[in-house]
Amino acid sequence: MDANQRIARISAHLNPPNLDKNGSGSDLRRVGCRAKGGSPGFKVAILGAAGGIGQPLAMLMKMNPLVSLLHLYDVANAPGVTADISHMDTSAIVRGFLGQPQLEEALTGMDLVIIPAGVPRKPGMTRDDLFNINAGIVRTLSEAIAKCCPKAIVNIISNPVNSTVPIAAEVFKKAGTFDPKKLMGVTMLDVVRANTFVAEVMSLDPREVDVPVVGGHAGVTILPLLSQVKPPCSFTQKEIEYLTDRIQNGGTEVVEAKAGAGSATLSMAYAAVKFADACLRGLRGDANIVECAFVASHVTELPFFASKVRLGRCGVDEVYGLGPLNEYERMGLEKAKKELGGSIAKGVTFVKK
Length: 353
Ligand SMILES: NC(=O)c1ccc[n+]([C@@H]2O[C@H](COP(=O)([O-])OP(=O)(O)OC[C@H]3O[C@@H](n4cnc5c(N)ncnc54)[C@H](O)[C@@H]3O)[C@@H](O)[C@H]2O)c1
Ligand SMILES: O=C(O)C[C@H](O)C(=O)O
Description:
Blueprint: H1 3-14, E1 42-47, H2 54-62, E2 67-74, H3 78-86, E3 93-98, H4 103-107, E4 112-115, H5 131-148, E5 153-156, H6 161-175, E6 183-185, H7 188-202, E7 213-215, E8 222-224, H8 237-248, H9 250-258, H10 266-284, E9 289-296, E10 304-312, E11 315-319, H11 327-352
Parallel strand pairs: 1-2, 1-4, 2-3, 4-5, 5-6
Antiparallel strand pairs: 7-8, 9-10, 10-11
Helix pairs in contact: 2-10, 5-6, 6-11, 7-8
Bound molecules: nicotinamide-adenine-dinucleotide (NAD) and (2S)-2-hydroxybutanedioic acid (LMR).
């Protein structure tokens, strides 16, 4: 191909004749016009990619060398976000998909699907107050995943995670595609916060701190195991109570500070990428990838529970038990299980009814 042909080809993609008013023509998917195909790396879709989490998440995933193809799907503004991010000089090819008619194409062939689609909290709301809107969104997206990429790993960010993960599981069960190793609720932000707050209290570098956070992702279901912090730390009871309360209410702290403009987006995008990167390294076959996530579980009597999991080529290779708990943590566990059971049942019923 000579220089004129090359320029003509690129111009055709920048000014495609079939671009409709919303930018939703097939041209949008051809933003990745330099894709050669077959390049090493994983194919990742973000559903809700134009949102407060979706945009920084898309940017950070475009920077991840393990990603070869990045599909950005949203019901609004996907073309703008896709055009913007596609100019970053990193190797992942970016393609945008706008609205339900393009959902299946967005999902076909994906290795990992990350879902931050849905409404966020405003001050005074609980995560469960989002159920009425977000449950339906997650159900629809999960139905499309079951149809188009049933073997993909699915990372669910949309709240209430304690219910949206069971919703996705029920949809996959109905479709006959449920693989408990592949479905994960993203609770990494709780771990990120716990590491940060413990580091503050103990004057440590947060990058060296590892706090297991188990249970679920809402209020008392968020259970930091401060007795198992690495490096080992000795906290006073006052410090334990302060840290537990701050970790459990970290989301609300951000919701209130944003005063009606949404919930955590930037720290969440950071946490989501940290978790997605761990999933991709597991898929690649790296050893000893251990993170906390909300998964199908036999660790307690509940069918889903967040705990440490080992990520591998098939997704969750092993779900770890909780380890020794102190009395304060045992009490916290009972409270967490009580609330979590109801949230899981609510999600299951939503799909079964
Ligand atoms: N798991 C966590 O730790 C965690 C942390 C922060 C936020 N969240 C949750 O993530 C969700 C998104 O938060 P946000 O701040 O990005 O919200 P946002 O409103 O800024 O963005 C949501 C995006 O989802 C899109 N969307 C809506 N319906 C859709 C559908 N059917 N298909 C595809 N996209 C759709 C919207 O167009 C929007 O772009 C909320 O439910 C929030 O509570 C979870
Ligand atoms: O708090 C929220 O509503 C968002 C998210 O779950 C968080 O923990 O920041």
